[in-house]
């Protein structure tokens, strides 16, 4: 009785110690592209991509998109001896073994296909016996079990499995030893080279065997192995390899699902939440409920968990998809509308801040004035204090009118002015410059500008917050952007609503809440990134693995495993897609790339510069490449530009057309030589024939001297040649045909009818014209030398220019009426086409007329 009471008290204390607030998870489920929400296993491949196996599919994830591999619904390879849980092994960088109860499947990752017949595969690698269980060790070696025999695919010799030890459930092999884990709880160590048995050790007494005999999962840790065991109970054990002793770390009355290690701690998933076991002192924390970024709590079974190489923590749930946590996410604390004591359904606009003497902050909203006390000094809640808490002059306020939303002169003497379309910078003695999203700004609509005590400049925008950095040598301005993955508001910030409190905390207010940040929390070393090729497009069409294009297999291997491309001379319109596998925050990824032979220097691209590109994917297009060999180099970095990751290189060979090859030139030479020889022969032949004819004529003249007159007449007739007259064909140029003109007029009419639809795309236009996308592309390029997307965009820009000259609508309204996603995107496209910003167009047009 005392033991039970003691155990209950310990459990209560552990529950008090563990806090779900330490982890804030982001849900990743079918809404983000996961095939289904029943996650069974998580693994990270050698190239950095994530594998999520679900009840329906195998999901490959590159940080931006999910790619599905549909598993066969029947057949497979039978594993008679395997009764355990779902397991996945990666062998090398090409095979993925999936082991389920009594069933084995294998995926060829290089071709992204399930192997159709594993019996044939095993025979091809020299395995003749029927395997009853399969394992892959940390050195990518394949182990197989048949009866009471264990052998390795690439080595001679066998290990005899003792009958009394029970069924083999797991193995671990290092450089010298092989450790086998059996259903009886016994561990037996062998010498890898001699197969000699070294020692045996049991995790528990014989009386406890029924409690933990059913399943096993072993993970190598510092100084030994952690093992999960299940039976009528669940248990977590640790084996110290130096002392050769076992220690029970955790025992539960329910099943334990998966085990992962991180920084000396063991994380164990179970039917509700997960356990954290500290390896040094054995202290156990239990988190039954998990907090998500929107503040809700999830209480569900965690079927699997995994730590990726970037420090991210993935949880796979039984029916709610994935949960992702990273300690560097959500550095901004979001205080949303649920903290405000106001009626539901009413928008809250945080308009200004003011510091109070006791360390709290006063917040002026459209619904009143509130006092906020940070969690360190209070409960972190908001209390209404009335509208007269401070004089009006103490409130933060930056808006100055006349289109200027915020203004600030920094410690350098530079003046920054925020507008609805860009950030203006005025340096002493220099011309004013306007910075836009093209320069790295998070969004073109500026709401507030704040300089903190460390002389860092912060800018709130219509989407996220930008921190401004200035190079101390060159004076160049760079931006580091933060968005919802960092904890910023999902909506707009408010003009002038920014404050640095006495303790250095920064406050930024906007629609339905505010965010706060301690700046020193942001400075953390970022994991190096190496991009992976995830997609290739040929003439606008995505290239599929193994498919043939123009009688050539462009991608014999899947894109991430492709190191070189062989292309025909007319396969030179290419688009590449790379992912940096930045799971922490894809939209803050920077890239630089260079195509040797085309780009003189590195070209930089920022994945989060525009909303439509904020998925973290780099898209590079090269058109009309000449035949030759090129090397495309790509690097990635988190926002800030430290290029400390690896370089991904892709060799591209574009073959010359057959008429420009060495063989063709050789044939040309042979043909010319034959032509010369033939011409000489023909000349000699004609000369000889002419001489023979003349000789015959002389003989004839001698023999018929008596008929000279007749012969002369005959010779005159012979030497008379008929004269033919003719005319040359004159090729006349023709204008565009009436059919082509009618086609263009119809296409323009269709686009103009759908002008206000932002989503009206090339696919929609080709459908309305009853044409295939490729046919439409070729038609417009032939007639106008423009792609369909440029054709649609130019019509939108022409209409936008007409609206600008009318002067009745704002840029935002014009963007809506012409189908652009935002005013900033309209501005960028307009400047590319007309050479000036929309705000300058009308004035320039008037001057030119």
From TrEMBL:
InterPro entries: Homeodomain-like_sf, HTH_AraC, Ig-like_fold, Quinoprotein_ADH-like_sf, Reg_prop, WD40/YVTN_repeat-like_dom_sf, Y_Y_Y. Keywords: DNA-binding, Membrane, Signal, Transcription, Transcription regulation, Transmembrane, Transmembrane helix. PROSITE patterns: HTH_ARAC_FAMILY_2 (PS01124). One of its GO terms (molecular function) is DNA-binding transcription factor activity. The keyword Signal applies. It comes from the Bacteria. SMART domains: HTH_ARAC (SM00342). Residues 1-20 form the signal peptide. Pfam families: HTH_18 (PF12833), Reg_prop (PF07494), Y_Y_Y (PF07495). The keyword Transcription regulation applies. The chain crosses the membrane at residues 665-683. Residues 745-844 form the HTH araC/xylS-type domain. This is Transcriptional regulator.
């Amino acid at each position: 009785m005392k033991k039970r009471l003691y155990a209950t008290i310990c459990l209560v204390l552990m529950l008090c110690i563990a806090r779900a607030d330490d982890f804030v998870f982001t849900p990743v489920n079918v809404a983000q592209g996961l095939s289904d929400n029943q996650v069974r296993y998580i693994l990270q491949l050698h190239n950095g991509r994530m594998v999520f196996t679900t009840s329906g599919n195998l999901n490959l994830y590159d940080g931006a998109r999910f790619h599905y591999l549909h598993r066969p619904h029947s057949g497979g390879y039978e594993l008679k001896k395997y009764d355990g849980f779902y397991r996945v092994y990666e062998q090398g960088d090409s095979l993925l073994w999936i082991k389920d109860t009594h069933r084995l499947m294998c995926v060829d990752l290089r071709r992204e296909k399930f192997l159709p017949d594993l019996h044939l595969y095993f025979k091809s690698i020299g395995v003749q016996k029927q395997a009853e269980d399969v394992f892959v060790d940390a050195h990518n070696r394949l182990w197989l079990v048949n009866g009471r025999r264990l052998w390795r695919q690439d080595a001679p010799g066998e290990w005899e499995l003792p009958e009394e030890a029970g069924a083999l459930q797991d193995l671990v092999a290092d450089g010298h030893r092989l450790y086998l884990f059996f259903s009886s709880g016994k561990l037996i160590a062998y010498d890898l080279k001699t197969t000699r048995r070294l020692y045996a050790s049991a995790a528990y007494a014989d009386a406890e065997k029924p409690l933990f005999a059913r399943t096993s999962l072993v993970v190598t840790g510092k100084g030994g192995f952690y093992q999960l065991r299940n039976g009528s109970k669940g248990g977590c054990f640790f084996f110290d390899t130096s002392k050769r002793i076992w220690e029970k770390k955790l025992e539960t009355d329910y099943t334990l699902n998966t085990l992962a290690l991180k920084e000396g701690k063991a994380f164990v998933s179970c039917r509700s939440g997960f356990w954290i076991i500290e390896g040094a002192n054995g202290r156990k924390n239990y988190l039954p409920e998990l907090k998500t970024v929107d503040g809700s709590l999830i209480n569900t079974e965690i079927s699997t968990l995994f730590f990726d190489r970037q420090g991210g923590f993935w949880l796979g749930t039984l029916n709610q998809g994935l949960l992702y946590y990273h300690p560097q996410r959500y550095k901004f604390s979001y205080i949303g509308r649920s903290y405000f004591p106001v009626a539901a359904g009413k928008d809250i606009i945080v308009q200004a801040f003011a510091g109070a003497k006791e360390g709290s902050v006063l917040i002026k909203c459209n619904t009143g004035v509130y006092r906020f006390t940070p969690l360190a000094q209070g409960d972190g809640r908001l209390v209404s204090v009335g509208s007269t808490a401070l004089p009006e002059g103490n409130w933060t306020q930056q808006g100055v009118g006349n289109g200027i939303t915020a203004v600030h002169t920094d410690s350098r003497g530079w003046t920054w002015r925020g507008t609805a379309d860009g950030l203006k910078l005025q340096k002493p003695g220099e011309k004013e410059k306007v910075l836009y999203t093209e320069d790295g700004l998070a969004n073109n609509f500026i709401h507030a500008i704040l300089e903190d005590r460390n002389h860092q400049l912060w800018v709130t925008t219509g989407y996220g917050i930008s921190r401004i950095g200035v190079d101390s040598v060159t004076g160049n301005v760079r931006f580091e952007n933060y968005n919802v993955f960092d904890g910023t508001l999902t909506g707009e910030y408010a003009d002038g609503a920014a404050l640095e409190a006495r303790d250095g905390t920064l406050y930024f207010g906007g629609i339905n809440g505010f965010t706060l940040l301690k700046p020193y929390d942001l400075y953390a070393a970022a994991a190096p990134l190496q991009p992976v090729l995830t997609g290739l497009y040929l003439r606008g069409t995505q290239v599929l693995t193994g498919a043939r294009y123009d009688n050539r297999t462009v991608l014999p291997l899947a894109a991430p495993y492709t190191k070189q491309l062989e292309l025909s001379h007319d396969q030179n319109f290419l688009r590449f897609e790379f992912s940096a596998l930045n799971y922490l925050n894809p939209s803050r990824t920077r890239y630089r790339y260079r195509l040797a032979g085309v780009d003189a220097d590195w070209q930089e691209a920022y994945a989060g510069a525009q909303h439509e590109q904020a998925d973290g994917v780099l898209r590079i297009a090269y058109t009309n490449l000449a035949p030759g060999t090129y090397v495309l180099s790509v690097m990635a970095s988190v926002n800030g530009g430290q290029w400390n990751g690896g370089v991904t290189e892709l060799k591209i060979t574009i073959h010359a057309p057959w008429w420009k090859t060495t063989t063709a030139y050789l044939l040309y030479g042979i043909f010319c030589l034959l032509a010369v020889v033939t011409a000489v022969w023909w000349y000699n032949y004609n000369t000889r024939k002419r001489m023979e004819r003349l000789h015959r004529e002389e003989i004839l003249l001698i023999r018929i001297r008596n008929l000279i007159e007749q012969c002369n007449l005959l010779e005159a007739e012979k030497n008379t040649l008929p004269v033919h007259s003719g005319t040359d064909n004159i090729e006349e140029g023709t204008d565009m045909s009436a059919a082509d003109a009618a086609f263009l007029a119809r296409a323009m009419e269709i686009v103009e009818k759908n002008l206000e639809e932002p989503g009206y795309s090339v696919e929609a236009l080709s459908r309305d014209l009853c044409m295939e996308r490729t046919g439409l592309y070729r038609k417009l390029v032939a007639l106008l030398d423009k792609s369909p997307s440029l054709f649609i965009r130019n019509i939108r820009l022409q209409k936008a220019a007409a609206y600008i000259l009318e002067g009745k609508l704002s840029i935002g309204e014009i963007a809506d009426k012409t189908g652009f996603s935002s005013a900033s995107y309209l501005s960028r496209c307009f400047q590319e086409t007309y050479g000036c910003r929309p705000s300058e167009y009308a004035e320039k047009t008037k001057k030119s007329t």
